[in-house]
Amino acid sequence: MKLFILTVMNGMTLAALYFLVASGFTLVFGLMRNVNLAHGSLYLLGAYVGFNVADWTGSWFLGVAAGFLGMAVVGAILQVVIFRRMQGQDLRQTLVTIGLSIVMADLMLAVWGGNTYQFDPPSWLSGPVQLMTAPVVKYPLYRLVLLASAIVIGVGLWLLLNKTRIGMMIRAGVDDRGMLAASGVNVQRIFTITFALGAGLAGFAGVVGGTALSIAPGEDTRYLLASLVVVIVGGMGSVTGAAIGATLIGLAEQLGLVYSPTYGVVYTFLIMVVVLAFRPQGIMGKAA
């Protein structure tokens, strides 16, 4: 029972990290229909930038801020320079961002090498806490804070998209860009802000994920693939769907790793196949 509880908690905290990355991806891919396959590279680059800033300043919080803000700026530049010129051209966006991710991976390898890095969280976030379960289980405090942060960010994103004026404009711009522009709204500015927010969330996830796990070459591909699966399972453009998809994938990955390690990876894609077979638009996605 203790092993099962630890495995479920590991699955939930991994799901929280997947959600943080996928929430940015669902903003860009699901809502704006921009095929950004360099999203995983933004995760890894944000982690590296945050690590360097935290190392130079001695402040983990400045590292988190640098990861978020740095990738938000990069995301805004990508939207203005690349995606604005290729709007509606999915194949071009796919090919260009694949090439961009390869270039970024090589540049990061040249700058930071093939070493594995890990953040040290603040001392008050370190150490275990006792969970009120039977039997009593000790679990790292930082991972619980990561889970709570993902919940807060998820609720904030849902409120932003569904209960605010800017969220209304984002959804209207996706449905009918011409009509929104005719009403006097600067559609390109709205889309740039949205893309910057999605990229910033990837950078934020890179720092908090690098603190919980580690930073190493290849993590960009892993989290890009995880984001794709989460968005496909949960439904494109749905923050709630991303949360559900991340929970299913995180739990399946950890439970499979513990109880059937040979087939652990299969369960993740089995979930995706079942969802695509019975609900092609995803669990919370809308029919086309």
TrEMBL record:
Record's keyword annotation contains Transport: yes
InterPro entries membership: ABC_transp_permease, BCAA_transport_permease
Membrane topology, from the record: Multi-pass membrane protein
Pfam assignment, any one: BPD_transp_2
Keywords carried by this UniProt record: Amino-acid transport, Cell membrane, Membrane, Transmembrane, Transmembrane helix, Transport
Annotated localization: Cell membrane
Transmembrane helix recorded as keyword: yes
Transmembrane segments: 12-30, 60-83, 95-114, 141-161, 223-252, 258-278
Family from the record: Belongs to the binding-protein-dependent transport system permease family. LivHM subfamily.
Protein name: Branched-chain amino acid ABC transporter permease
